[in-house]
Specification:
single chain, TIM Barrel
Length: about 325
Amino acid sequence: MEYTYLGRIGLQVSRLCLGTVNFGMHVSEEDTFPVLDRALEQGINFLDTSNSYNSGLTEMIIGNWFEQDRSRRNGIVLATKVYSQTGDGPNDGRLSAYHIRRACEDSLRRLQTDHIDLYQMHHIDRQTPWEEIWGGMEQLVREGKIVYVGSSNFAAWNIAQAQGIASQRNSLGLVSEQSVYNLRNRMVELEVLPCCRALGLGVIPYSPMGGGLLCGVLDNPATGRRGRESLKETIETYRTQLQAYEQLCQPLGHRPADVALAWVLKSPDIVAPIIGPRTVEQLDQNVAALELTLDAETLARLDEIWPGPSGEAPEAYAW
C-alpha cells in the first residue's frame, strides 16, 4: 500500500480510503467485518463514515468491529461527518455549536472510541456564522475528542472563507475537502481543486467510479444496484460516451472500474479516493488499480470522451 500526506499536515493516510455508506444498507454487519479485516490487511488505514449513514447504523457497525479487537483502532485514521438532520428537533442538524457537540458525542458512542481523527462538515451551513462553527470545533479539539477538521461538498469560496476566519483565530482550520469527482463529474477542476492546492487541503474524492456508471454497465446485466431506475436513465443519457469508454478499456486489459479509479488517482491534487466495496473481492480489485498507470494517449482519449470544464477558472471561461 502507498501512503501520502493529508494535504499540508503531517498525517499520512493510504492512497485509498475505505468508504462505508453501504455498511448496514447493502451489506449486513456480519458481511462487513471480512471487508474491514481485509482492508486492514491490505494496508488501508483510512476509514470514512458519517453519522447520517443508515441513521447511525454504519457508525455502530464500525464500533462493533473495533470492539472485537481494540488494537485495530490504533492503526486507523477514522473520519466521520456532522451536519445532517439526526432527529425531529430544530437543533438536530446543521452546524451550530450546540449540534456539533451533541453529534460528536453521539458518534463517539456509536463508534466506541474516545476520539475522531478527522471530523468533517458534511455540507456548508449558510445560517451559522463561522465564528460559532470554529468555536465549537476548537472546543472539541481542546477536549481531545477530535484531532482535525475537514469539509465536504464545499464550494471553493466556502473553503477560502472558512480558512480566512480560522487564520484570524490562529487555528489550523480545514485540512481536507471531500468532493464528488470522477470522469463524468469534473466540475471541481474549475475552482475547488485549485483552491485546495493553494491552501494546502488534501482532496478526498467520493464516487470515483460515478456511482457505478463507470464500472462497465453496458456489458453487465441490469441487476442489483445496476438495476436502479435512476441508473438506467443515466446510462441512456450517456450511452454514446459509455460505449466509447468501455471500448477504450477493452484493449487495455483492465476493467472499466479500474481505469476510472486509476484516472482519479493520477491527479497530484488527490490524496485518497473513497472506494465502497461490498465484498472482499471488490476490495482487492480496487487495490489492484493502484498498480495501473495510464499512458498519455489513453489520458487524452479519456479527456475526449469525458471532457472536463476546460481547465481552471478563470481561464476556463475567460481570457
